[in-house]
# Entry
Amino acid sequence: MAKTMKTAVVVRQEQIGTDIYSLTVNCPDIADAAVPGQFVSLFTGDNSRLLPRPISICDAGSGEIRFVYRTAGEGTKIISKLKSGDEIRLLGPLGNGYTLEEKDAILIGGGIGIPPMLYLAKQLKSKGVKCAIVLGYRDEEFLKGDFEGLGDVYVSSDTGFMGVKGTVIDAINEYGVSGQQIYTCGPKPMLKAVKAFAEEKGIKAQLSLEERMACGIGACLACVCETTAVDDHSKVNNARVCADGPVFDSKEVRL
Amino acid sequence: MKLSVNIAGVELKNPVTVASGTFGSGMEYDDFYDVGELGAVTTKGVANVPWPGNKTPRIAEIHGGMMNAIGLQNPGIDTFIERDLAFLKNKDTRVIVNVCGRSVADYVEVVERLGEEETVSLLEINVSCPNVKEGGIAFGTDPKALSEITKEVKKHAKQPVIMKLSPNVTDIALMARTAEEAGADAISLINTITGMKIDINRRTFAVANKTAGVSGPAIHPIAVRMVYQAAQAVKIPIIGMGGVATAEDALELIMAGATAVAVGTANFYNPYAALEVVGGIRDYMDKNGVNDIAELIGCVK
# Structure
């Protein structure tokens, strides 16, 4: 799991939704080390946009890494313009990733938290774990087709354009989705709802958190989250999302 | 070729260290290179007890840099000695410990604890953090308060004392002279410059603390100017910092009068930045026939 800084070559990039891009790069050192739930720091190459953009790993294998991300500001817009053959500096893989349990799994992805569920679903399937996959969209679908064959897929959407109109929890209730281990990534309100749901039902849940980062390797202490117990590294009720996370047991953190 | 420099009687094998708060205690960067390659490791500020720091978001990006309001989160002196100093003890580099506190008594307590630690070569007193309500910058922007805390720390310190100065003052030469007259063995500058950024989409402050310290290449010219002004005002050595990302940036500060330099924000976007600065200074000296780094220190009058 050694992290390295590498210059990778873009294999392909395509726009797959409004402001949503799929970028595949060749970078065997990082791809071969990556586990589901980890992320990679992507550098813009622009000297006025210096800090890396932490992007979750959507898929990895055969020396390649795929990122599916949303353009949120100028930095990600620069990255979205990269074309096949272009170079990009990467630092990774970073963070802890999910702990894969051999129990019936419920994967819950919301919005731009959906991409890391793909690599996770593939790895769980290869271990023979049964996966129920719940995808929450706002008003537009992306990446759903990639989950075909990896498990039963259930959808919720804010606007009702697809699946159950409402939240991922509404979809879980509506379809009677069940399992013994939840893995999730998505916006904070969704994580809060999943945490409450999991704790009420007595199901273990691993949450992937997001916070603004600088270094991505645990040195700057920018991306902390509140922990229920005193953290062993910080000695206060704070853990580093980049180095101690981004994946936490739902009971470890306060959202 | 001689790269070593002397800060208050302590020899650094090369003039490059890191800015406090950008490097932890070096453990995270040791995954990328042996931090013993640096002239010194300057640790993140440590207080007498653990500090939780500020609310998130703690950072924001700006053109050519960033701003932060971490709020000096640190695990406290006990853990620092047990874990961080134990790591640094085995590294072939000097250790500069940055000390923070809310009151003079807090600073003194940490300074006294560190007096027993042989691993620690120098103390850097943080009187310039803009992101905490008490302590920090309150001591570093008022000459009287700066003088008092310098004298008090000097009374209790076993290691030489570096006072880290704030750029958020009208007259940096006055602050440098004040520290020198109060007994400081060296000064370091600049800390971050207080700024503010507003998120127009959320209609709120980009950083939860409202104000935050601006750092990175964007502030480098300010650092060069202030190091130069301080160098004209005092005889004690200066550790220069502020936006150093390359050897060229470091050499500017050295020529302006810094005996050593610290790499800060650049560590966040290039984990090898400080190591590359060491190599780049060596290359510059080689190419320009400079036999001793001392020839460059303050060479621009």
